[in-house]
């Protein structure tokens, strides 16, 4: 790839819609927080941590990712974690970020919901002021836990609902079909929350049908395996459903064997509203701009395709129409300058 295209990608105004804040915990910060909190972690060095990040599937990754989250204890930890992410994102041309968090990962080990969300919200407010970006928060339910546990989490979120834009569904996909959470998503919807769900990362096309037909989702995280079902592709296209695709994650979790075979351009060619995102950048070896550069290189995407992906990230966001229009105007001014 030319240096020119690389810097076009960095400067391209974009939104990140699929980012687990716990997955943005870089090994250096993991060590610093372990020390600050007097917690022992099973690694001796940053290099040893990075060497442990060789995964053969989603569960392999999740085991290490949940263990890493143990260093997060205080409001300040969550604030520092999110601040580090927002600073990197702003440097990557991100002008809007919708961050996901997994409250159950923390409440299950005795860290209060309030500690987690207060730390994240203060970092969001600071990032908006510091970088002039917009931010939103998505609360994810862990699908390997029960429906009852998801309902308890939704109840804990009640005092914070004005600060939460959407609920999502993540963790181990296989064996945990979306329909398991149909009632809790309906309850979240009744409270005015938007809905997104991981589907079709490792799970079959049937799980993507379920999030459309049973959950009534507003967005789909990943969605790769939808391409196995032509009727499903047609449904996603006519519904104008946004897919938050994560190429470096797909590579690290063996969802694709090689980026040269990544389906991002097939998705666009099929009329699907795909976006590019980093998922868990500290674990998958790249930020959002790295993801854009990786597929631009591997699949030969040109500036027009990259601009379409950035455009989709704004139109697929959970922002109000006026704010989307304002971000699109920023994108259009950038593209006009570059032309
Ligand atoms: O890629 C993912 N898939 C499912 N759950 C997750 N939790 C963090 N990242 C992921
Ligand atoms: Zn994810």
TrEMBL record:
GO MF annotations in UniProt = adenine deaminase activity; zinc ion binding
Q: Which residues form the active site?
A: 201
What the entry lists under Pfam families is as follows: A_deaminase (PF00962)
Write out the catalysed reaction.
Answer: adenine + H2O + H(+) = hypoxanthine + NH4(+)
Q: Where is this site: Important for catalytic activity?
A: 222
Q: Does this UniProt record's set of keywords contain ATP-binding?
A: no
Please state the Enzyme Commission number of this protein: 3.5.4.2
The keyword Cytoplasm is assigned to this record: no
Q: Which family does it belong to?
A: Belongs to the metallo-dependent hydrolases superfamily. Adenosine and AMP deaminases family. Adenine deaminase type 2 subfamily.
Described purpose of this protein according to its UniProt entry: Catalyzes the hydrolytic deamination of adenine to hypoxanthine. Plays an important role in the purine salvage pathway and in nitrogen catabolism.
Name the record gives this protein = Adenine deaminase
């Amino acid at each position: 790839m030319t240096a020119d295209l690389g810097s076009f990608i960095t400067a391209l105004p974009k939104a990140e819609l699929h980012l687990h804040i716990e997955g943005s915990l870089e090994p250096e910060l993991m060590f610093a927080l372990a020390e600050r909190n007097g917690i022992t972690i099973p690694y001796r060095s940053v290099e040893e941590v990075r060497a442990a990040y060789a995964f053969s599937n989603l569960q392999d990754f999740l085991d290490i990712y949940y263990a890493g989250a143990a260093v997060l204890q205080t409001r300040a930890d969550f604030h520092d974690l999110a601040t580090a992410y927002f600073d990197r994102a702003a440097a990557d041309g991100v002008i809007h970020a919708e961050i996901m968090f997994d409250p159950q990962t923390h409440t299950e080990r005795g860290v209060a919901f309030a500690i987690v969300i207060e730390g994240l919200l203060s970092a969001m407010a600071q990032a908006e002021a510091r970088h002039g970006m917009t931010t939103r928060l998505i609360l994810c339910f862990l699908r390997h836990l029960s429906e009852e546990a998801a309902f308890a989490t939704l109840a804990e979120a009640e005092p914070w609902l004005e600060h939460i834009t959407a609920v999502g569904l993540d963790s181990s996909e296989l064996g945990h079909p979306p329909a398991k959470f149909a009632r809790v998503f309906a309850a979240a919807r009744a409270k005015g929350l938007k809905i997104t769900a991981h589907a079709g990362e490792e799970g079959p096309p049937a799980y993507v049908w379920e999030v459309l037909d049973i959950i009534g989702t507003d967005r789909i995280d990943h969605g790769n395996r939808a391409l196995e079902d032509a009727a499903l592709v047609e449904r996603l296209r006519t519904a104008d459903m946004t897919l938050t695709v994560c190429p470096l994650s797909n590579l690290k979790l063996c969802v694709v064997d090689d980026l040269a075979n990544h389906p991002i351009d097939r998705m666009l060619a099929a009329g699907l509203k795909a976006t590019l995102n980093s998922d868990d950048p500290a674990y998958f070896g790249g930020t959002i701009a790295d993801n854009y550069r990786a597929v631009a290189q591997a699949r030969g995407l040109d500036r027009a395709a990259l601009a379409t992906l950035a455009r989709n990230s704004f139109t697929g966001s959970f922002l109000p129409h006026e704010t989307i229009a304002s971000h699109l105007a920023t994108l259009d001014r950038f593209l006009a300058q570059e032309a």
